[in-house]
Amino acid sequence: MEKRLIWDIPTRLFHWLLVICIVAQYLTVEVLDATAWHFRIGYFTLGLILFRLLWGFVGTTYARFSQFLTGPGKVLSYAKTITNPESAEHAGHNPMGGWMVIALLLLIALQGISGLFIGDDIINNGPYYDAVSEATRDTMNIIHHTAFNILLAAIALHIAAVVFYTRFKKQLLVPAMLHGKKTTNEPGISSSRLLVALVLVILVIGAMYYVIEIAPPAPAVDADMYY
Ligand code: HEM
Ligand code: HEM
What does the record say about its membrane topology (predicted)? Predict the structure, then answer.
């Protein structure tokens, strides 16, 4: 067993930025009443998710979906061994954790996308507020509020799993998400593919600029403003 690089820099940076963003998203609406910042950080979070989805196809070995997404058979047989402290350690995400990653990414995407269609009833409306009917806005509002509660439950489960692996299975997952290295006999990655990541970042910035600034319809003029 040797100490080898498993998590590339973009994946690690993505993870901790995502954690900061989710905390900030909660604080901006529930504590600080800073909706404008909630929007800005929300766009950034959506950009992070888009980056991670693309990185799942062109990133390094253990960041790829094809590496950690397995069929129900493997997930079930892994689940049966989960309480065995001796069971094999995976260099990347384990078969259950892999699907949890997808659940977290999709929930956060749902949260961000639904936010684009709603407003705070004062002055700040998401960029697609005027693009849809009131009924759709109401639905998006329900999704935005409900998805966050589901997301909180998923995050609690995620953190509980990390604590379980650390305490019970003695696998040091958190330091690995910080410095990227694990003691393993599976092959490590040779680089973080930073040039590919940079190209993706540029693409994501372009796509987000289009979605937030160019594509949305002009805000509807409120007739009351003139009286
Ligand atoms: C807002 C809260 C959080 C969210 C949304 C979140 C989300 C995620 C996601 C999406 C991944 C997959 C990483 C990837 O492959 O791109 C992940 C992995 C991971 N997270 Fe978190 N996370 C959160 C909080 C935390 C906290 C507080 C810790 C530390 C205590 C933590 C530790 C880890 C570890 C160790 C992994 C790697 C798991 C493995 O080895 O399979 N996360 N997290
Ligand atoms: C992507 C991550 C996001 C997270 C985690 C998040 C989270 C939240 C939470 C927790 C609330 C409070 C819900 C409640 O009171 O039950 C909220 C409200 C809201 N969010 Fe988000 N949000 C995100 C993205 C966005 C985006 C991208 C927009 C719009 C551009 C947006 C617009 C709003 C609005 C307008 C409200 C209502 C604020 C109010 O009623 O004062 N959110 N969000």
Answer: Multi-pass membrane protein
- The CATH code of the domain that includes 6 is 1.20.950.20
Reported as a single tens digit per residue, the pLDDT across 32-75 is 989 999 999 999 999 999 999 999 999 999 999 999 999 999 99
Cβ contact 15:174 at 8 Å: no
In a domain, 72, yes or no: yes
What is the rounded distance in angstroms from the CA atom of residue 136 to the CA atom of residue 214? 21
The pLDDT tens digits for 133-157 are 999 999 999 999 999 999 999 999 9
Ligand 1 and 14: CB distance under 6 A = yes
Domains identified in the chain, total number: 1
Find where tokens 């019970």 sit: 168
Residue 99 placed within a domain: yes
Q: Which atom of ligand 2 is nearest to the CA of 33?
A: 41
Pocket flag, ligand 1, residue 137 (CB < 6 Å): no
